[in-house]
Design a protein that fits this description.
heterodimer, A: 116 residues, mainly beta, six-stranded mixed beta sheet, five-stranded antiparallel beta sheet, 53% strand, B: 116 residues, seven-stranded mixed beta sheet, four-stranded antiparallel beta sheet, 11 strands
Amino acid sequence: QQQVKQSPQSLIVQKGGISIINCAYENTAFDYFPWYQQFPGKGPALLIAIRPDVSEKKEGRFTISFNKSAKQFSLHIMDSQPGDSATYFCAALFNAGGTSYGKLTFGQGTILTVHP
Amino acid sequence: SAVISQKPSRDICQRGTSLTIQCQVDSQVTMMFWYRQQPGQSLTLIATANQGSEATYESGFVIDKFPISRPNLTFSTLTVSNMSPEDSSIYLCSVEDLTRQGGKQFFGPGTRLTVL
């Protein structure tokens, strides 16, 4: 199975709050898990990514938590700002190491709205 | 990260016609990918384009409908042939950045296609 399931479909958060988006995968061959942020009319932008050998990665206000045994990973946006309002996609990739090339399998997307 | 441009940025086309979308990268890349994003939906991989060889198409996509060219390491085209309203989507190209640890894919701004 190559599915990546993402929830929730939409999320409304107050400014300063924590936004949490969850993803689950089935295939244990996935070895790279990026998150993309997409604003209307723009292409997806790589936000942060993690490999299964670590349980957490933090970059500024964005943190990925990874649970290998549960085959789940999540994006946490701390101190959410109205400028964070966008669609967020999780993804998973095979053969991300070395010189192998893989194709991204995307989750369904989460529309995040941060109210001022 | 690589800088990716796409032309046209948007177009409105008549049913039965074809449109060729161009993707230009500012550095040489081995693999380029073409994705489709239907309105309000996630991204679906159409094909992987490797310079000097035939593109590899994903299930549900065929060369007659979506011919791809990859004449060099910085350029690719995707043609949407014999269009119907169901082809109305955003078409995105992406590249994998091998200057960093494998797996980082970056997207162009997309081509928004409307078929009447």
